[in-house]
TrEMBL record, chain A:
It comes from the Eukaryota. This is E3 ubiquitin ligase complex SCF subunit sconC. It comes from Artomyces pyxidatus.
From TrEMBL, chain B:
This is Uncharacterized protein. It comes from the Eukaryota.
Amino acid sequence: MPTIVSVDDSTVPGEGSSRLLLLVSSDNKHIVVEEDIMSRSRFISKQVEGFEATSQRHAILLPFSSFVLNKVIEYCSHYRGYYLLEDDPDAAPPGRSPVREWDQEFLDVDRNMLLRIIKAAHYLEIKSLVGSCARAIADMIRGKTTEEMREILGVENDFTPEEEHSPSSKCTG
Amino acid sequence: MFNIVAALSGLFWDATIHARIPILAQLTHYDHGPLLAGTAWEGLDGEINAISNILWLAKTRRNSLASRVVRLPSDILSRIFFWTMKMTGPLNVASSKKPAWINITHTCQRWRQLALQDVALWKHIELEHVSLSWGTEMVQRSRLVPLSIKTGFSLSPAVRAVFQQSATVARVQTLVIDGQRGGQKAIDTILKKPSASTTLLQSLSISHAFHKVLVLPARIFCNNTPNLRSLSLRGCFISWDSPLFANFTHLDIGARKRGDPVRKPMQLKTNIELSQLLARMPRLQTLALYQILPSVAYEELTPAGRSVVGAVELPSSLVSLRLMGPLNDCVGLALCLPLATSSSIKLAMDLEEFPWNGTPQPTPSIMRHVGGTHRPPRTMMLRCDERSETTQLRLYSDTCDMRGLPESVERECQTSLTLAGQSSFFFKTSDVCVQAPWEGLYLGELQDAYVRVLEDSNHVVEQEIWSKARWVTMFGRAQGVRTLRVEGCACILKLLEAMTPSGTSPSQSFLFPYLTDLTLYCFNRTEEDMSPRSRAHISFHSGVMSEVGEALEACIRARSVRGVHLQSLEVDPVFRPGTTGWEGDNVVTVYKPKRGSVDSVFLPDHADG
């Protein structure tokens, strides 16, 4: 659950035609964003519903940096008002990465940043962004051998010798 | 700080290792007998195991600390694995390189555990490419979820193993059998299994490419398929009497291509037979019939002729109908579909006779007879090779008569007309052009009426046939045309004559009074690209080119006097006055003044000369 702190109305003008939200990042940056933009996030939507139930407006503290938060806001702003087909992996055709062109450019960041974004999207429950990030990571590792994958992802081979040579592992590679 | 810890840790391990693992000199007393040596051996094995476990523990902890990827939540990792599988395709044991989603299971402990538990990775099985052990392993890992199985017609051990287990067959939700050669034995083995319960099967697709007809059993899975909704059968025979044709919502059936041997036995004989078949599938939503439509002779291809044959009642739930085959058969069937005006259906036809790419839409006349709320085509194109010329022309002369359409439809239905072919073909299209709804264009609010004529024409023998009167007859009613593109040579001379006002009197009419964009291209200039007939008369065309340029200048000047100006003009440079052939640059002269209009074409160069 996020930490919620009370804010006075002068900080968050909420009664106007364009309702605003105050998001606070883990590095204590205050970011004001239109509620409509963040409606793609189920987490934020639930928070807003909570505000309406209690008639109190709060800042929403988020456990990731302002840099990551701004990236997420950029994504949500780009697709503002669009209906996005939520990931339906079964319906996706096999073959080339189906990441949208804009998403591909948007996610052209280093590996660590990509992982931060996907975790933030997961936290905020933005399914389409989680899907795009997952596809971008999958794109990164496809066609790679096990050793190459470990190198790219910074993973150690932590199998015991028994596991490496167990009968079931023969059918995993 | 870290260095101190590391150094202390090193000292600790040095001391521990020497205490736990004796050096060789300390082991010499074990030489006294095999019993003592064996004890030392076992002791060292124990140490090795312990060290391996410590190493494994250290690596696992390192992974959980160091790698953000490993630490991702399970559901995100599942998504990554799934997309990796989608991108890299199915497992193929014959391939030397394993797909990335299999390599995932070798990366680290956590990923392996997650991947092995993730049924989505294992429920799609392509049996043709996996060994027996892999096939059974994937079935096991998919646990109890519905399976999607794809296989060919070879009875590999994996195929046999999977389809011999009733419990596995009962889990199959989607079954695709696709391949070449043989197959009868495989089909019998898979589809005739007597005791199989296939209650989960929803989609069955069988495609067979071989010169021998593959016969499917009439009672597939002993007709124990209560949830089978989608059937795709291409290149294989099944009796139309099969009880299978009952609950489908999607049916895609017929021959794979024109010469497919299954075409003859599967062809529906009459519209009545088709109607009876459709009546058995009241919930049908999409229907595609490939090369098996009832044969229709051209003589029957009129609304009157079709009414004799009888209407085909489509299920009310049908939203998409795709017909493929000879033009006569497709159009013949389309003309027998009495849809209610309120019905909306997507009708597509792949006609063998149309040589160009893409699927042409049915013409407005067809749609008028079909009824429903189809959107009429915005583009009409007549272009053909000699093989299909006659059929198309006769058909179009019947079907392109758009008179009688509601005005709202008529306005929309033709914003573009393309006529392309040899000049002999072009002459034959006169009737079509005369029937075209030019008034509709004129009355409508269409700004981009577009006529493209004669892509490859100008047979010299027929030059006498070209006359100003012919152009006027064909396009005299097409006053609304704004854009005209002509590819040709000698024919353009007469066209320009018809477009040139003969005097200053407003009563003197001329072609295309509202024309704003004109494009004139000579036909293919390289000999290899020319038609044989044009190639035989290059010298003639070389002489005409210059005349075309002069006629164009005269035309533009005369139209300017009448206050009719072009806004854009593209002229092939071979039409420049003084040109004697195709020599010179290939750059097309484009006149697109930013403001004002085109008043002259070759004037600057011509004047300089």
